[in-house]
């Protein structure tokens, strides 16, 4: 009920987590930047399959050790990504986007080729599972999987190829992460409270209905109701019973208002702060957040232990970091030829008056002591 970010996902299937981590490992959209003001926006429709014109057999890039990428291979790579992230359609003709995708493709190719037999065997099993999940999901959409493939100008083997490159790459990178590196990362993140957890019971008096977002009450009314709840608790009222009666949080009201051993970093700032600082096992005064008012009781606080699940999570984080570093540092040295359009160089910003040698501090009102 209290997430600090929208928890809805486009796909609820488990495999989408892998796709986000692997296919979008380099944050494609951030490389492209925002669309230029006044520029026409391409509709993210499936029909925008082609990224550029040219013969499919044309070689658009070469890299060390005899590597080459044809127009057909590049277009398939981009169109698979677009199938999973339709919003990418608006960037298809953007040179910066194309250059970033080329970086990803070359990086995946080079690193996946270094995967050993064990990594490949493990990855192949995952790819088989993921491909089934993908075909099952898209098979239930209008027109089925065949329509999705046709609209995006790809074949099923193109998806499988990218999946294999992705899993081979990440598997190879993760295999190089040592236990010490995982432990060190855990210690560093734990010191920064990244793994703080708490068991918190609360009764939310909301301003709006959680389902419809219609107004329920004013802030003054909500505060008065929260104080009423606190008063009953202070007199020995049963927290679970009062949560069931009063709370507007559908995620906890039927569980005594309790979130057990929850990651506090997922909560909105006000609730997180209270969960981090309130005295244990004391009924709080109403705590205001964007949801309304909370009457809280923090029952315990601790740090998530480094179990196998967390080790896997941290190992993936470190592998993704290594992957990004490889792409930024090693990729420029790998490329031999690159025939894709290059982004236009941004014009140098005009010197500001404060930065200009002709603009002395004395002439600047902001720099003048009298102007303060």
TrEMBL record:
- EC number(s) reported in the record: 5.2.1.8
GO MF entry, a single one: peptidyl-prolyl cis-trans isomerase activity
For this protein, the record's InterPro entries field holds: PPIase_dom_sf, PPIase_PpiC, PrsA_foldase, Trigger_fact/SurA_dom_sf
**UniProt entry tagged with the keyword Signal:** yes
The record places domain PpiC at 200-300
Signal recorded as keyword: yes
- Pfam families on file: Rotamase_3
Region ranges (Disordered): 330-372
Domain of life according to the entry:
Bacteria
Stretches with biased composition (Low complexity) = 345-372
Which residues are the signal sequence here? 1-30
Keywords from the UniProt entry: Isomerase, Rotamase, Signal
Q: Which PANTHER family match?
A: PEPTIDYL-PROLYL CIS-TRANS ISOMERASE HP_0175-RELATED, PEPTIDYLPROLYL ISOMERASE
Q: What is this protein called?
A: Foldase protein PrsA
